[in-house]
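Why should sequence recovery work at all? Because a backbone constrains its sequence more than one might expect. Tight turns favour small or flexible residues, buried strands favour hydrophobic ones, and helices have their own preferences. The token representation captures these environments compactly. In the example below, the structure is given first.
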């Protein structure tokens, strides 16, 4: 994948965590899950038989940008 900012090739990899990653319009605290009634979403999926969460992402070293195309919801 090419970086949309500088057009250089991006490195494929993963954003990984021992906990799920969540996107929401508001800053959350406590148990980090999407706020009730918001359009927030859980970004990561748990690996089979593992406690690790991950999402595919591309990194541009020159622009210091991460890009991830989220999978369709099942």
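From this structural description, the recovered sequence reads:
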């Amino acid at each position: 994948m090419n970086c949309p900012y500088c057009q250089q090739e991006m490195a494929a990899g993963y954003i990984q965590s021992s906990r799920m990653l969540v996107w929401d319009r508001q800053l959350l605290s406590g148990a980090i899950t999407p706020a009730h009634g918001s359009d927030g979403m859980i970004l990561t999926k748990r690996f089979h038989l593992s406690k690790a969460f991950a999402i595919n992402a591309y990194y541009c070293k020159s622009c210091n940008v991460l890009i991830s195309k989220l999978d369709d919801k099942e």
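A few observations help interpret the result. DSSP finds no helices and six strands in the chain.
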